[in-house]
Fold:
Amino acid sequence: MKIDPWSSTTYQDYTRLRDEFGIAEFSDDLWRDLPNPHRLLRRNVVFGHRDFDRIHEAVVHKKPWAILTGLMPSGRMHLGHKMVIDEVIYYQSIGADIFIAVADIEAFATRGYTLEETKKLALEEYISNYIALGLKPDKCHIYFQSENMFVKDLAFLLGKRVNWSQMLATYGFNNSTNMAHIFSPLIQTGDILHVQLKEFGGVRPTLVPVGVDQDPHIRLSRDIAQAHRIFNVTITKDGRIGVFVKVDSQIGELLDHAEKILKKLGFSHFERITDYKALYINDANESDIPHINEVFAQDEPVLCGYGFLQPCSTYHRFITGLTGDKMSSSKPESAIFLTDTPEQARKKIMHAKTGGAVTLEEQKKHGGLPDACVIYELFLYHLIEDDKELAGIYSDCKQGKLMCGQCKKQAAELMGSLLDDIAVKRKNIEDKLDDYLK
Ligand code: TRP
Ligand code: SF4
Structure:
């Protein structure tokens, strides 16, 4: 199995996907003690992660951390796109620095838009709605890939540590893939890692919340981040904790430097094997590694390295389209757009595919299937905040106490108020854009 970030496949079996790609399960202990955990976290819509523990630790200890995510400005913004920004707004409320990349180069390279078209779409469809949904301007930066020299420079320079066969194996490019497309994963790596440059707040844990189709880019960024480190802090096969120099010159000096840092951290039992470029720390435990690693990473810019920490990620499930397959901008009847009127949304909801039985009789007798119902999904992902109320709908449906007609009506009403609310908030937004595009 291969994940293709540019195809329109839907993924059904998230557990299998998670296991196959070494994505970790997003278990309760990762979000339970966060302030007011967001419904997408509580309800297992976010189902997997890489290294979210580092973010959890930063939040709990009130240390700086950042979010970087991107939007592909192609087509209109729908409820599927809303999920990432809902997460971002939540993370902003608990202290993250926010960075949002408008993937105009990627849309140009892979979808055939001009940069002008993507700019208009990004502003009118996405950014306006982000602001209407509650994204705040403080500590928030929205930028266009094509206008960010730091991102573009990194894309070129970081490409040094990835070779063609790795790109081929990851993305399945072929001889007729255009070069801008081939280059776009490196631009995305530039997006993801540039927030750790000193100009953007320095080395710190960074979370990239995405749909699982983006995982190849996450893996590439994580590999590249690690490949550019001067020091590798790790546990060896025989269980020893060590700091290893990854470059080929000034090894003695770098090991001296490492020892100094470790002493400051309170360690004192070292064994140095210069031939292995290694400094073993005999009084460290495996659980010390992440902290030691962060301290070394933060120090690397002093040594003219980047010191990038590997970016962390979370993966959310995709919302099902109202027609039962993928929610897609190119099929308007499958999607509710954030600029739809309540009436347009109501019509789509009334036609939606539910988990109801064929006849009312049957449904009263055997109940419905909320787990296979797009109306229930609307409640779960977007419309009902109260977990008890949601659980009530779930069990009423299963027990045959709730019928689809009534249920759809409730969904249409809630959706109508949501759309009305953001339509009002979208008014006069042009004056505010400058506070975000900085
Ligand atoms: N490739 C992403 C998409 O297709 C957009 C994107 C660009 C992005 N840069 C990013 C996503 C950085 C996450 C992080 O939607
Ligand atoms: Fe879906 Fe509601 Fe019908 Fe149950 S009653 S199947 S949740 S629409």
User: Anything to note?
Assistant: The chain is about 45% helix and 10% strand.
